[in-house]
TrEMBL record:
Top-level taxon of origin: Bacteria
InterPro entries: Sel1-like, Sel1_AlgK, TPR-like_helical_dom_sf
Transmembrane segments: none
The protein's name: TPR repeat protein
Source organism (scientific name): Methylobacterium persicinum
């Protein structure tokens, strides 16, 4: 039982005199004491190690973006080991599944990466949706499907992920998974640029100058 909770005897005494709403709150605290205790028992060290080795600079869930790792610099083997250990401690943290996916992705184990990204996406990670779209777009040791790539980019963009907005714009710009659409490309490049995505600003300038098919890449 969590130390911050009332002792059971005290809860019962107070509940007798308190209104119904207070009795409900007290009962929930008593019943959930072990839940709070288990949250505090999670090993912060394993989670921090995974974060330090595999978090993405553009992931809104990253706890410290100044310590995040660019994909090209990610050390895949230790990152995968650390993130698997962290997930065993805190399986509910979506960013850990996303970061494990990045580690597998860096190794080229793209089927494993997809499974990790899907778990992260199911838990609500917009960043994972971006990387699933990239897997489908590139098709390296994985299914190549531009229509699915565009669909995942759309989900990430509509979830408010600036990297997803950029990727969705590249789909309209370069006719990935559908017809080109200069207006839509400008719209989503603009949204990403407003949120600080430098490459989106650069692509928007090229689009204004050259029209569609700027060659901007999402990878």
């Amino acid at each position: 039982m969590s130390a911050v909770l009332l002792r059971r005897s005290e809860s019962i005494t107070l509940a007798y005199y308190q209104p119904a709403a207070a009795r409900v709150v007290l009962m929930l605290l008593v019943l959930c004491g072990d839940c709070f205790a288990s949250d505090r028992s999670v090993s912060l060290e394993s989670v921090q190690t995974c974060d330090g080795l595999a978090s993405a600079p553009w992931d809104p869930d990253a706890p410290d973006r100044s310590r995040a790792v660019e994909f090209r610099d990610l050390r895949a083997v230790p990152a995968a080991m650390a993130c698997r250990a962290a997930i065993a401690e805190a399986p509910q943290l979506r960013r850990l599944h996303f970061q494990l996916g990045r580690a597998y992705d860096r190794q080229g184990a793209n089927q494993d990466a997809y499974q990790a990204y899907r778990r992260a996406s199911d838990l609500g990670s917009g960043a994972a949706k971006v990387n699933i779209g990239i897997l489908f777009r590139q098709g390296r040791r994985f299914e190549k499907n531009d229509a699915k790539a565009r669909s995942w980019f759309r989900e990430a963009a509509e979830a408010g992920i600036p990297e997803g907005m950029f990727c969705y714009a590249t789909a309209f710009d370069n006719a990935i998974g559908g017809a080109p659409d200069i207006a839509a490309a400008k719209l989503w490049y603009g949204k990403a640029a407003e949120r600080g995505t430098t490459k989106a600003r650069d692509a928007l300038v090229r689009l204004e100058l050259n029209g569609v098919v700027t060659g901007a890449r999402c990878d």
